[in-house]
Amino acid sequence: LEPIIVSLSDMEAGGEGNIMYLVTKSHPRLQRLSILGLSPGSKIKIIQTFPTFVVQVDETQIALEKSIAKDIFVRKTNGHTGHRHRHRRGLF
């Protein structure tokens, strides 16, 4: 069973959901996220997860460091929000 609410950092590109809550002890960070539209109840779509997380809220795309994505918890609304599967190719 996959959890219904997950950290944004555990979602994959194409995933969508609603922000449920933010976990941070930094009041300035909480304010910045809120100003950007990243607040409980906001609909969010993951555009990319590497090298940084890029998310879309309304018509705005926002780049986030993984450390910030870990603080945002989302209720998934589609089937593309599970854990990423990493496939290695070549020498990397």
What would your notes on this structure say?
The chain has about 90 residues and is an alpha+beta fold. It has one domain: Roll (SH3 type barrels). About 15% of the residues lie in helices and about 35% in strands. The radius of gyration is 13 Å and the shape is globular. The termini are far apart.
Largest sheet, spatial ordering of strands: 1-6-2-3-4-5
**How many helix segments?**
2
* Tally of structural domains: 1
In N-to-C order, the SSE pattern is EEHEEEHE
Instruction: Tell me the major beta sheet.
Output: 6 strands, antiparallel
Main structural class? alpha+beta
CATH superfamily: Ferrous iron transport protein A (FeoA)
Tell me the span between the first and last alpha carbons. Answer: 31 Å
Low-confidence stretches: 81-92
Instruction: Tell me the overall shape.
Output: globular
Strand element count: 6
Q: Approximately how much beta-strand content do the residues carry?
A: 25-35%
CATH architecture identity: Roll
What percent of the residues sit in helical stretches (DSSP H or I)? Answer: 10-25%
Task: Summarize model confidence as the mean pLDDT.
Answer: 87
Features:
92 residues; alpha+beta; SH3 type barrels; globular
Topology, please?
Elements: E1 5-7, E2 16-22, H1 27-35, E3 43-48, E4 53-57, E5 60-64, H2 66-69, E6 72-76
Antiparallel strand pairs: 1-6, 2-3, 2-6, 3-4, 4-5
Short summary:
By secondary structure, the chain is an alpha+beta fold. It has 2 helices and 6 strands; from the N terminus they run ββαβββαβ. The chain has one domain (5-76): Roll (SH3 type barrels).
